[in-house]
Amino acid sequence: MHTLGFGGSQDFSSSLAPQRITARAHINWLLLEQRFASAIDILHQLVERSRVLKQGRNQAEWLMLLAVAQQLAGDAHTALLSLQESLDIARSQGYRRLYLDQSPRVLAVLRQLFGELRDIRLRSFVQPLLAALLPQGHAPTLYEMLTGKELDIIALLQQGLDNKQLATALSISEGTLKWHLHNIFGKLQVRNRTQAVQVSRQHGLLK
Predict the structure, then answer these.
(1) What is the DSSP letter of 7?
(2) C-alpha span between 69 and 34 (Å, rounded)
(3) Residue intervals in the chain for CATH 1.10.10.10
(4) pTM beyond 0.70
(5) Which of 8, 68, 133, 181 keeps 20 to 30 A from 112, CA to CA?
(6) Using an 8 Å Cβ cutoff, are 127 and 144 in contact?
(7) How confident is the model at residue 7 (pLDDT cuts 50, 70, 90)?
(8) Which CATH number applies to 1-134: 1.25.40, 1.10.10, 1.10.540, 3.30.700?
(9) How many angstroms separate the Cα of 18 from the Cα of each of 14, 22, 106?
(10) Tens digits of residue pLDDT in 94-117
(11) Which CATH architecture has domain 139-207?
């Protein structure tokens, strides 16, 4: 098992937060060299260290990089679980920027992983991130066209709630809800809620 000292006398376990950028550079080098097992081993230690120290931002970033390493190693299922744990932390604290301040290789894998998310809460959180990560000239998918609020409404539509119940659940007025529904129907190219739910399921927006 690798320790958290990356060369020389430098020990990342003793001062994790100040040296996060250097640790990230080392992880990126391991990924570039396709030493995925080594990267995963070190990242597990970094995740646990930040968990013990209650360093939420660090923990979210190490989990995100762990997901990338696992995806590159061919373990897509575990990668998605790591990413979901990372996003749960980031969503509760508003840590969006850390997913953008990464190397091009990491960003490419994140785009792929974001597209596999099925948790509607997390998809709402990463929707603006996914838009920012898309290359120029990319034709947006249906999911990318919908806003976070629209995704929240779609998730509630399948519960059969009426307008008043939907508005209450979302803490918005019925007038605002109707405006959102109008936009949703237009983007999905449907005429009613039943069709909206059907199309959303067909495109993987709902389980």
Answers:
(1) S
(2) 9
(3) 139-207
(4) no
(5) 181
(6) yes
(7) very low
(8) 1.25.40
(9) 10, 9, 21
(10) 888 888 887 777 777 887 777 677
(11) Orthogonal Bundle (1.10)
